[in-house]
Design goal:
It is a single chain. By secondary structure, the protein is mainly α. The chain has a single domain (about 60-270), classed as Ferritin (Up-down Bundle), CATH 1.20.1260. It contains 10 helices and 2 strands; from the N terminus they run ααβααβαααααα. Strands 1-2 form a two-stranded parallel sheet. Bound molecules: fe (ii) ion (2 copies). One fe (ii) ion binds near residues 127, 130 and 206.
């Protein structure tokens, strides 16, 4: 009998992208990440290969996806508001799983050191855990992912940058995931005040690991700027203005952004506010 040939990394990525159910998607994502890292540890890395990722990843039938302005406003002080917040974070995490596998599959023909693939597979694995953690918290409170409507626009950044890897790196990890660093401490406070220890510790895991995802974005963005002899700050400004349809909103988490390799002169000029005066 012919030995079974293993999947390439790009094929594994497409398998995750075309799995609709959230828990099934994250289970497959974690399994593929474990396979990738086991092969790396054995010094027998899987072939990267090429594959055709779908323009839109498969999604479960629930939640209903609404235009952002039609998603009901949440009041975080109430139990219902906190559930809506958990649901929104679960939705972001599920999109993030697909965003990282899409990065692997869509740009697998761009030559990179193997560390590029290590980083995005690790990020996808962590997002899968984040989604599962948020689902566990929702279920503790008698709810589940899919019980509430969610934003339909979450995949837009991926679609807009489907042909532009540097645009993808600028907008997804360096703008959207960096925004997560700004808002997560406030969310942790909301759940701490509600004495919800399970959610506090889940959000603390997310907060710590998201610094890494922003850092991967900054690292590979700078790598490509070096390859193409571009000024990183100017190129970042150009790409964010081109692909991101809004200004960046302070307050910024300058400490965590710095830790992730995002200096203030990258993001302050893209906001509609002045940086605070320094003594
Ligand atoms: Fe995450
Ligand atoms: Fe992330």
């Amino acid at each position: 009998m012919e030995p079974l040939m293993g999947d390439t990394l790009a094929q594994m990525a497409v398998e995750v992208l075309t799995t609709a159910d959230g828990r099934a998607k994250t289970a497959l994502s974690r399994k593929h990440a474990a396979t990738w890292f086991a092969a790396r540890a054995a010094n027998e890395p899987l072939e990267i290969g090429t594959a055709e990722p779908p323009l839109h990843p498969a999604r479960p039938t629930q939640p209903e996806l609404l235009n952002p302005r039609d998603v009901p406003r949440r009041k975080p002080g109430s139990e219902k508001g906190r559930l809506a917040l958990l649901h929104a974070v679960a939705h972001i995490e599920l999109n993030a799983v697909d965003l990282h596998w899409d990065m692997v599959a869509r740009f697998s023909d761009v030559p990179f050191p193997i560390g590029f693939f290590d980083d995005w597979v690790r990020a996808a694995d962590e997002e899968s855990n984040h989604f599962n953690l948020m689902c566990d918290c929702l279920e503790t409170h008698g709810s589940h992912y899919g019980a509430l409507p969610a934003h339909a626009g979450m995949w837009r950044a991926a679609e807009d940058t489907a042909e532009d890897l540097m645009g993808r790196l600028a907008v997804v990890p360096m703008v959207l995931e960096a925004r997560g660093l700004d808002v997560t401490p406030g969310m942790i406070e909301v759940f701490r005040k509600a004495n919800d220890a399970q959610t506090v510790s889940a959000l603390e895991v997310i907060y710590a690991e998201e610094v890494g995802h922003v850092a991967y974005g900054s690292k590979w963005f700078h790598f490509l700027c070096g390859r193409y002899e571009l000024d990183p700050k100017d190129e970042f400004h150009r790409l964010v203005k081109h692909y991101f349809h809004s200004t960046l909103k302070p307050p910024f988490n300058e400490e965590k952004r710095a830790e992730a390799g995002l200096p203030p002169d990258f993001y302050w000029p893209l906001s509609d506010a002045e940086p605070p005066a320094r003594g």
